[in-house]
Amino acid sequence: MIKNEISAAGNLIQIIIQSRQNALKKVNEELIQMYWKVGEYLSTESTKVSFGDAYIDTVAEEVQNAFPGIKGFNRRGLYRMKKFYETYADDVFYVH
Q: For the chain, which residues make up each domain, given as ranges?
């Protein structure tokens, strides 16, 4: 009986571990897609306006005001997303 309980616990532990790994993978995929889309948007829009760099600075400030508790959307973060998109824009990259 104890052997079966240990085996059951081990099986449940494996299910939990696998589910957690799958969840982390999905979260990472979603973050990468978001960074790509934000970078694409900033790259496209910043070429349309006459004040390019100032545009991203303004957008960063507005996003930070809208989401004060979320890190990574400051000026530096948005420039990195833009650079990420521009670096890999010519490569095959599928975003839903």
A: 2-88
